[in-house]
Amino acid sequence: MDTSAAPKSGSLTRWPLLRAATPAGRYGPSLTLVLLMPLIVLFSIGFLYPIGRLVIMSFGDAAPGLVQYRRILATPLYLGVLSRTISTAAIVTVLSLTLGYPVALAMARARGRAALVIAAAVLIPLWTSVLVRSYAWIVLLQRSGLVNAFLVDSGLTAAPLKLLYTDGAVILAMTHVLMPFMILPVTNALRSIPPDYARAARSLGAGSFATFMRIVLPLSLPGVFAGCVMCFILAIGFYITPALVGGPEAMTMATLIAQQTTVVLDWPFAAALSTILLLVTLTCVVVFRRALSVSKGIHSVT
Question: What pLDDT score was predicted for residue 294?
Fold first, then answer.
């Protein structure tokens, strides 16, 4: 049978009739736009419109201008809350990476029952409500809680310590809540690394530490950056855990915004605070993306 007239793979451009028969050739970009239209409408109504209204409200209706922003910059209390929020989010991100990377490495390399146990230890807390986990830390850290009871009974302290309603309690509870968001992206990046790379490095004389530093860690950086972005963004806008575990003494931007909207009822000022928090979040995302691109460029050269 003569097969010279049959179209070859990837040669639809030579056969206009076949190209027109395909959905992409028949409808073109209009079909893609129609399919994306529900998502675009939902994104516009659920995100762009509220954010736009928030920014407009921050400039004030009665006296439009930068009055609310000048108030934030001129008050040390608000700048201190913003600084505490950013520093707390940074510390939580670093702790989540430090504690979560070994777990992710073990989760990526484990097989069989060990892999199931590690996955359950990571995912079950993620499926538990943040409110429940925050109350669990209150039970542990209060003056009559398990931690203080252990310290007093063992003779390490003469009286119960103030562990609850402190910055340390907020950092500890937030790290526990956000650590799965660091572990899962890093685990996915580690599993995507071919094992032949590590075997090749060891066959060339590299030890375990050198293999990790030169092969495993650089190739897992996309997962590390993704986990850092998620942890930092979630931490910078966390509300439930700082409100319950930290109290009024460890106020963050989220609790301050809630106070302005529900107690003081100063919506323009709350909108200005939210806009500043949004700008900080977008800046951090841009910095993380830039750092990831620079890291990829460095490792591609080396």
Answer: 64
Distance set, CA 81 to CA 21, 87, 166, 236 (Å): 61, 10, 14, 11
Give the amino acid at 55: V
Is the distance from CB of 104 to CB of 190 less than 8 angstroms?
Answer: yes
- Cβ neighbours for 23, distance < 8 A, ≥ 6 positions apart: 31
How far from 160 is each of 18, 19, 150, 152, 197, CA to CA, in Å?
79, 77, 10, 7, 52
Task: Give residues with Cβ within 8 angstroms of 89, minimum separation 6.
Answer: 231, 232, 235, 236, 238
How many angstroms separate the CA atoms of 58 and 80, rounded? 20
235 occurs within a structural domain:
yes
Cα separation, 231 vs 289, in Å, equals: 15
Q: Is residue 1 part of a domain?
A: no
Q: Residue 28 domain-assigned?
A: no
67-74 and 76-109 are packed helices; what angle lies between their axes, rounded to 10 degrees? 80
Query: pLDDT tens across 109-168, in order?
Result: 888 888 888 888 888 888 888 888 888 898 898 888 888 888 888 888 888 888 888 888
In this structure, are residues 175 and 99 in contact, taking their beta carbons and an 8 Å threshold?
yes
Give the tens place of pLDDT for each residue, 44-54.
Answer: 888 888 888 88
Domain count for the chain, please give it.
Answer: 1
